[in-house]
Amino acid sequence: MPWKTLGQDHLLARLRPALEQGRESHAYLLTGPPRVGKLTLAREVAQAVNCLQGPGAPCGTCVQCRRIANALHADVRVVDIEFSRKVEGRETVNTITIGAIRELERAVNLNPFEGSRTVVIIDGAGAMTPEAANALLKTLEEPPPGVLFLLLAEDDETLLSTIRSRCQTLPLLPMSRRDMLDFLTQQRNASGNPVTGDEADMLYRLSRGCLGWALNALADPQLLAQRQADLERIRETATAGLDARFAYANEVASLFSSNRPAARELLSLWLRWWRDLLLIKENAQEYLHNADQAQALQTHAATLTTPQITTFIRRLQTTLTALDANASPRLAMETLMLNVE
Ligand SMILES: [Zn+2]
Known about the structure:
Elements: H1 9-20, E1 27-31, H2 38-50, H3 63-69, E2 76-79, H4 81-88, H5 98-108, E3 119-123, H6 130-141, E4 148-153, H7 161-164, E5 168-171, H8 177-184, H9 197-207, H10 211-219, H11 222-239, H12 242-258, H13 260-281, H14 294-301, H15 306-324, H16 329-338
Parallel strand pairs: 1-4, 1-5, 2-3, 3-4
Helix pairs in contact: 2-3, 4-5, 5-6, 8-9, 9-10, 11-13, 12-13, 12-16, 13-14, 13-15, 15-16
This protein binds zinc ion (ZN).
């Protein structure tokens, strides 16, 4: 059975022989942008080491493979912010806490329930607190026998170098335009019609080659409608008075507490909008990310000078860096909104 992970042949060429010969590393670090396919690949690796037909490759049909695909397998544990919230009993938790790592360690020191390999997937490893990261490091230094660790992170720079050095890094890459168009034009959209070349091209641009994003948008038209609404808010807010901008800053700050990835995604949308404004100024429309919004971008760009746009892009980048370093979301967003022009 072929692997379902697409566009990552450079990694599969390394992984497959190791898995088939049972010589896999005890810890891998999968890196890449959101929805590029890290969790999909991690689940497939978990299948590969547990498959009843193998082990070595995911057959996708045996009971082990199916239980893992449906997130029902007791020995394949996903540790993420959600898990951390359950362990801590608080909805406001926004990190992977030391409590979550301790709970995980307790669980992996038991024998596997379903009879084969225990696999730990740390989804969003960059969200571990320093205490949690140090506790995990100790586990990686003396790993429980037979346990496979898969750490997922956007960027390996967000992790302790001592953790990185304990893992083999597998960098996932966005799909090429050609590969994504070939794949998407063989799919059907939410209304059941075949995906057209234009639709596929738009999904490629908006997803920046991250197949998971494109497939979600295809299955759920609400996602594109939400993007449209978010872009309208961005345009309105950028030209609104201070009160409206501060209200928006508070909304985004609350989103940061409840759903950090969604808030980051929203700020990336801001960043791409402002980069597009710069492209309009440079007369480089063919590179627009939001190509379907060319008219609205033109209108907005006409109200700004190039230095105003570049200054704001720099402020946005500073804000994103500060938020990644755990600055107060409210303060960071208010500062940004104070200086919108
Ligand atoms: Zn199988």
